[in-house]
Amino acid sequence: MPHSGPLRLAVLEADTPQPQTRERIGNYTSVFTQLFQGACDNSTPPKKLDEELTISGHGIVDDLNAYPSLDDVDAILISGSRHNSFDSDPWILKLVEYTQAALATKRVRIIGICFGHQILSRALGCKVGRNAKGWEVAVTDVGLTPEGKKVFGMEKMRIHQMHTDIVADFPPDAVPLGGNDICSVQAMYAPGKYIAVQGHPEFTQDIVTEILFNRHTVGVFTDELYNDGMARVANEHDGFAIARAFLKFLRD
Asked: Which residues form the Glutamine amidotransferase domain (predicted)?
């Protein structure tokens, strides 16, 4: 993607944050802007976000017309979501269709996060569905392939998780970047096309604590799952390093 100025990144918001997160930070475009700002601040030497990206947000769940023209963006980022990537709701089918259109441009690059990773895989013809091994929550370790170690610049990935849905197998054109015992398809990319992770580099201790608490309160999470997640929620994670890999992917 030869481009001298800031890249135009459209965040496709497939959900809204929990109430306290929304009050403190804003929508998921704000959450991802915070992630990329941290990635730039922690670069060596530090970078200026506004020289790297111009970020626009698009709430796609309730408005089928919220999508930007693919002519007006250089990349799209599909956010996580509490919804099922394998459902056939009109907005989900529209998102799959739009993702396929982005791929077909051979110019617009795609970043997939959790639900977005699954939607991208579905757009590429892969099966997505429930994980028989159950939930994966809070900071977990992801083993990286040799290519994954090069792409992310680390020996293993520590990343926040919040999912019980998975991609069954890597897409045919994907380079596998990582996996673990709970979910074998944790990270993948196709150079010049897309990069995706099953986890949430944008999540923080505060964001995940709120999700764990709220889902435990309404009975979605058992005591055991809640306590397990809370035991790891404050662990160090590699969100900024992963975001730096995203920025490099967009430029390469």
From this structure: 70-214
